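Q: I have 281 residues here and want to know how they pack in 3D. Can you give me a structure?
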Amino acid sequence: MKKTRKIGEEQREPRSALDKALAVLEVVASHPQPVGLPDMTAKLGLPRQTVHRVLQQLEANALVLRDPDRERFSVGPRFSRLALIALSSSNQTASVRAILKELVEDVQESCNVGVLDGLEFHYLERVDCHWALRIHMLAGSRVPAYCTSGGKVMMAHLPRKQCATLIKVSKLKRYTDNTLTRTDKLQMEFTAIRKNGFALNDQEYAIGMIGVAVPIYDSTGRVLSAVAFHGPQPRFSVGRARECVPKLQAAAKLLSAIWGLQDIPGNDIAKSKPDVGQASP
């Protein structure tokens, strides 16, 4: 005998295993701290057993990490690697590179966009200026986060406890007399960065190099990346770096839209170049 469906039953098909796994990963990645099973179950509206089974599969594939003492889950190393690979993939860097080129042509200094990876700032894309005197680095390069503008922007927006732990377990090398290596000094610097909306690097990584960076936000206000200028002193002074902040902030909004992190009303990135000269803070 053929089983009949109740009205509306065809609209209530169960979510696929992939849908459930992606939903769990999104909750783990979006949570500011390691998240427990009860919180995930409540947020997803899925049975506890289902979420637990999905978490076991994700843990087995290093997509999430489990804290055995507290039964809480955080982003795993494989998930982090996939995110970095996706952001730096040549499949989507054409638009990103176009925005950086526009910035470089306007300001005449090198520009990069990158993400935090541990205590390193990883360049996803980079465009050099045309001056003979410049610091040459390639996309994929890594620099210390705590003494570079892009890295400091991202560290400043980490959860305070996570940031303090990261600094505590790391050996902070002093590259110049301006390098901040004391935890209290770094925390004061991060507070100022959050207040001002940008970070400066006044010869903290290399003598004669000045940098400035702003965060790239998603639609929820989380900082996922940073875009930065840097150049040699005195051509690129601290004062000139400050003047470039509005241009970087405008570019950050466009980059966020390219990555699908938020929408920019009235902006068609595919059809027009970014007008970085009309930045808003």
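Q: Anything worth noting?
A: Confidence is low (pLDDT under 50) at residues 1-13, 264-281. The chain is about 40% helix and 20% strand.
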